[in-house]
């Protein structure tokens, strides 16, 4: 059991080092040797867990995406109204992005780079299924605009990444009023105006 835990700890250290180095240096300026050094393992150890740098980054992306969506949907119930469900999920996403800033920054970088392969992107999208299902229901009920889920995500969720980044830079401090205004803007951007 101790050997298994040591193995898990090494893999987790590699994932954590990857996130930190990619956030600070970008994908291309993050060699495997730096990841190994920061994780305090030999470079050869990486290859016990990952095939190569691409595999390491893809699996880190999927791990972080799974953690992010688990948190986002943890208290969501499928029988909530569309507006209640969206508000809950949106606020949980905002909470994650502001509390788990390093992980959220890593996901934001992954969303804006060709480094993540298409198979891993599709796996990441699967983790968002409860939100996509809520939007499908909202479209059927005439509550959510009948537009692409990518556009819905771009208008309703992506602005949170921008707010997280400017807060991290110290340019803006989000308080409850700002978050309420941001939520209202997100909801207004995707709901059908009656």
What topology emerges from the helices and strands here?
Elements: H1 2-25, H2 32-39, H3 43-49, H4 53-73, H5 82-99, H6 101-111, H7 118-126, H8 129-140, H9 149-156, H10 158-168, H11 176-190
Provide keyphrases for this structure.
elongated, mainly alpha, 194 residues, Arc Repressor Mutant, subunit A, 2 domains, Tetracycline Repressor, domain 2
The CATH architecture of the largest domain: Orthogonal Bundle
Task: Name the helix and strand elements from N-terminus to C-terminus, one letter apiece.
Answer: HHHHHHHHHHH
What distance lies between the first and last C-alpha atoms, to the nearest angstrom? 60 Å
CATH fold category name of the largest domain: Tetracycline Repressor, domain 2
Q: How much of the polypeptide forms β-strand, as a percent range? A: under 5%
How many helices does DSSP assign? 11
Describe the main β-sheet briefly. Answer: none
Ranges where pLDDT stays below 50 over 5 or more residues in a row are none
Summarize the structure.
The protein is an all-alpha fold and 194 residues long.
Question: Overview of this structure, please?
Answer:
With 194 residues, this protein is an all-alpha fold. Helices cover 74% and strands 0% of the residues. It is built from 11 helices and no strands. Helix 4 (53-73) packs across helix 5 (82-99), helix 5 (82-99) packs antiparallel against helix 8 (129-140) and helix 6 crosses helix 10 (158-168).
